[in-house]
Each structure stands twice: as C-alpha cells, then as structure tokens.
# Entry
Amino acid sequence: MANVRLKSSSKSDPARWILAVIGIGLVGGSIWLARFLNQPIQEMTDFRPIEVLADGYVSSHACRECHAHNHETWSASYHRTMTQIASPETVLASFANKTVSIPSHPQEYHLSTHSGMLWMSQSTNVAGQPTLELPIVLTTGSHHMQIYWYATGVARTIAMLPIIYLKEEKKWIPRAAAFLGPPHQNIYTELGRWNKGCINCHATHGNSTLLGVDGIPMWDTKVAEFGISCEACHGPGENHIRYHRNGIGETKKADPIVNPAKLSHKLSAQVCGSCHSANDALDVRKGRLNYLPGDDLTTRRFLIQRDDATRDYMRRNNSEEYGSPEKIENALNEIFWKDGVVRVTGREYSSLRHTACHQKGTASCLSCHAMHQSAKDPRPAAEWANDQLQADKTGQQGCVQCHDAKRFAAREHTHHATDSSGSQCYNCHMPHTSYGLLKAVRNHAIDSPDAKKSATSGRPNACNLCHLDKSLDWTAEHLSSWYGIAKPILNNDQKSVSAAVLGALRGDAAERALIAWHFGWEPAQKASGLDWMPPFLSILANDPYDAVRFIAGRSMKTHPLLRDIEFDFIGTLEHRETTAMKIFSKWINSATTSPKARNDLLLDVNGNVIRATYDRLVKERDHTPINLLE
# Structure
C-alpha cells in the first residue's frame, strides 16, 4: 500500500542501513565536518525537510492579518504543533546535558544543547566507529508524547531518535514501548519514515522525492508548512487573498477558499477524513497531493475497509507483500476488529462514514468538534484543545441535537439513573474500543452494545467495559430483557466468568490493553468496584507487551491499595515479577478484600483466587502477534 502502509516499516532498519547512512554522513556530508569544527549550519536546512511555498500555498502567517481569532485558536491547538522544527523552545524534554539510560536497553543517549541547536550522541557499538553526535532537527507530537528526528546527512532524509518522551509522565521510553507491538529488543530509527509516511498527515502540502543512491533511501522533502495548518483544511490561500485584495469579492465570482463548515456534511467530514481514515492514493504519480479540501475524497483515495474490495485492492497493488490471504488478514488486523470496526485511533472517519448518523442523518466531524475555539467558550484554551469539542457538545448535547432527549436520555431508555454515567449516550454508543497513544479512545462507529459481536469479533461492548465484574451472558440477558435483542450462543466461560477477566487473562494484546485502561476508568470503577481488581492488574503489570504494562501501571495509580507501589513498566523482568507479587501480596493482606464466592471473578468462598481457572485462562491466552497501525 503506497501511503497507508498496512505493514510496519520497521523492517527497513537493519544495521547495514544505519552504517551506510553513517558512512555517507561522515564522508560526503559537510554537516559532520561543520559540527566537528564548531561551525554550526543554521537549522540544518540542507539536511532536513524544509518549508517551501508553492502551488498557491501561502502559509498560516498570511491568514493572521484578516483572521486573527481563528489564527490564535489554531495556534493553541495540537494540530499546529504536530510537526515543528526542533529547538529549545519547541521540545518538551530537557536536552541540557542529560544522559538517558533505560533498563534492559543496550545503549545510552547523551542529549545536549549548544550553538542554538539540539544534539544527541550515542555509541554505534561497531568496532572502529567513533561515537557520533547527531543534530535533532524535527519534532512530531506535543499532546501526549513527542518524537525527535535527527539529520542523517543523506539529502533531507531524517531518522527517529530511538527513545520517545512521554509528556505527562516526564519520562523517556524506547520507541518500541510507545506503540502496541510484539515484545522485542530491536532499536528502531525509522530511517526515512517521516519523509515518506508521516509527512502525509503531519504537515501541510508535503512532497517527498525519492532520490536513492546505491540502494540507500535518499529523500528531498518539502512542505508548505510544518504541522497541520490553515491550508490543510481550507486549501491553498493565494487566490483567496487575491480575490479580496483586488476587489473581486464585489463581483458574482465565488471566493475560491474552502470553508468545511459550509460544505455538505459528507464533503465536510471528508476534509478531516483525508487524514483521519485508512486510505490510499488512487493516483500514485500525485500521491496524496491529488486531494484538496472540497473534493470528493472517494474519487481521490481508496478508502480501506475490512471487505473483499480492499482485499482485492491489496492483492492488485502489492502482490509481493500481500500475496496470501493470511498476510492480508494480518495486515487488516492492524487497523480493524474482526467485525470491520476500526480498532486504532486517528481513523475516526473510517468508522463515522458507515454510521446511520452520517449516512441517513447529517452528522459530520463538525457536529461535535470545533477546529477554532469560539470567543464565547469560557474554557481555557488548553482544555478545549484536548479534544477540540464545541463548548456545548461535551456531554449529551452532541447526541440530543438530533435525537429526542425526552425519549433517549430518559431512564426508560437507558435503564440507568439519569445522573449516572450509564445514562450518557456516548458511554453506550461510543465506548472506548479504539486504541492509540497508550490509552483507550472512543470509537466513532456509533453503534449499540451487542453481545454476539463481542463473542465473535473480540471487540468489547460498552456494558462489559463499565460493568467489568459481569459476564458476557449477564450483558446478553439485560439486552434481551430491555431491548429484545436475541441472546447469542455462548461458551461456558462467557456464561460464567467476567468478560473483563477473560479479556485480561485470555485476550489478545489489544484487548488486554483496553481492559487494563478500563481498570483505571472512574465510571467503571464506580460501577464494578475496586476490591477484586488487583489479581488481574498483577498479571497485566507483567504482560509481555510494553504498552499493556504501561497502561496497567497507570491504572494502578488510581487504585487506593496499589497507588504507592513503585513500578517501572520497562524495568527488568525480575522487577516486573516482583511488582506482580507485591500487588498480589498487598491484596491478600488487605482488610478490604473482595466479596466472597464470586465465581465470575474467580473468587472462592474465602475470597481467594480460584487458581485452577485463573491458570487455565492464562495458558489459553491468545498469543497472536498484535502490531496496531497507529
């Protein structure tokens, strides 16, 4: 797949590529000579992607003159800071003479700032090769984590610093630990990944030309603007400015700028969907540049789904990589649950476009979200920027703007107290079943809880994500009683054991990550209680997947019994096993142990774990490799 890349590009990072890049940098690139002679090249513009205004793009600076408020609110958003030139002002982490050492990681990284620039040095562990000092030139992200890219000295090709900085935790972690992927010890530099992949959505009007020398990827990369700027959503602004400055607006000619709010709900959603969906450019010559806001996205991109049309498209366009049904299904697993619902964040349009709200109604992204904070919005800009929701769409209002509140927000429909989380529309119809950025995210599929889909697809349902202590059969009984939904055929475990317990012990890595997150979700804690959770958090804290352990550790911090336990999710295996034992021991010795005789929670009449069932479910764990395409 040319742009979506249903396969991770991490395979392109063997040592031979790194050594080749190092060799070219030392021999052919003045970047290193300048560094060693203490003659810094200003911002390394010859060795990193650059901003070049072309094709009618004029940059956000040109918009500020007439649209000051919109420019100000955009500046406060995480869209603006999605990609930035690295500098002491734009990085979240400290680079001031800092050494980063990570347990079980084979290298140390020394970070420094001098000559107005940021630098990283590391040993190559190759005989005869000196320790290199590499310039950090770009950053990606600023909301939850930040990724750093260094110049390789090969054209404008950049590579990723193998460690990533977590904003909230103020912690460096290996790149591999920041995403949900199989456990390994590899060091990934993602050589050229930004040039050929990230540029498509993390910058405005990006264009990369593959040069290539002796098989080494060399990219000449230019963008109109770093980050997701005004023209990413409104289209190139040159003719819009000319239109108003030359008085053309007084004629009957239309203003050439695009305002997504004035488009049809389908075209409006496609503006967001050009990035927030799984898609591939239909015109390989123009790549993703062939779409402009206001176009019909379906005529410019192939919208990937879990269907036969996509399978056929994958075979026809990349038979070498997707030549067998097994390979295709493995690739689709990186984006979709087995029922076709998107399982990763950032692909919200792929879900929304199939909902009745969008197909039969007029729901679009702008029905709830606002790309510019209203002047009447009383919230701090940082609060708005978190989800970019309209001030009056943060609760039920997003749904009752179309659906009758008296009918659907009433207890007769929800069967929950009107002031409870169970009566919040989105908790039932948009549960947290997508994953990304080390957390669970609301799915935009907008559907109803369905025990049968959960049983067959592995996708958890809203009822069992809140009532973590209940079985899938319990959910099926209530859905049948309340809404007349036929009960599915369930196996003995689905009938007798909590669905969350089954997910934590027997589920695949993606399901375990979601369950670990919901153990720390306040509405679920209130609905299902906390006392029984430690035995299952203990095994999640020692999960083979780094990301699952991280999420379990974060949930532990919300548990009164466990919040004081020191836990490093990337610590040694011995540390993790010791932590798991501490959790179990603290739970056993607590005066507030769980309710007795809860077979669905694997607790016997004395409140002890029923080890035979617990151990059996762990042995039955789904070890299918999970590598979600975030």
